[in-house]
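Consider the following input, taken from an annotated entry for Lrp-AsnC family transcriptional regulator (Candidatus Mancarchaeum acidiphilum).
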Amino acid sequence: MDGIDDSIISLIDSGTINYSTIAKKLGMPLSTVHFRVRKLEKEKIIEGYKGEVNWKNAGMSVLAFIFVNVDVDLLKKLHKTQQQLLNELTGISYVKEGYIVTGEADIFLKVIAKDTEELGKVLLNSIDAKEGVVKTKTMVVL
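Applying the prediction step yields:
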């Protein structure tokens, strides 16, 4: 599996299952996309016709839930809403789901990574680096 397969998987996971659309988005021939998707299906990384991705088979074996605390005052100064910050966070390829929540945290994220080292890099370089994020609390699924 390489970066192209990762991109194909991300597009399929987001609901893009039309090979032509995937080929256009990735700037590659339709035949190449078709071949790669078939290979991923054979390897059981993509299961079923819905394009359902088995992340463990794709080498992404760490599932984590991350609570994000937001500096609402800073967001206001930046003319940014929590929804806009959530959209930025869910734009990170490792973030599979995200929600604005009530309680101790402001945003709840579902993140999938290859290992804890990669999860740490995603946290430090992508999530914590977003303007408005002041604190995160991570729970790793065993």
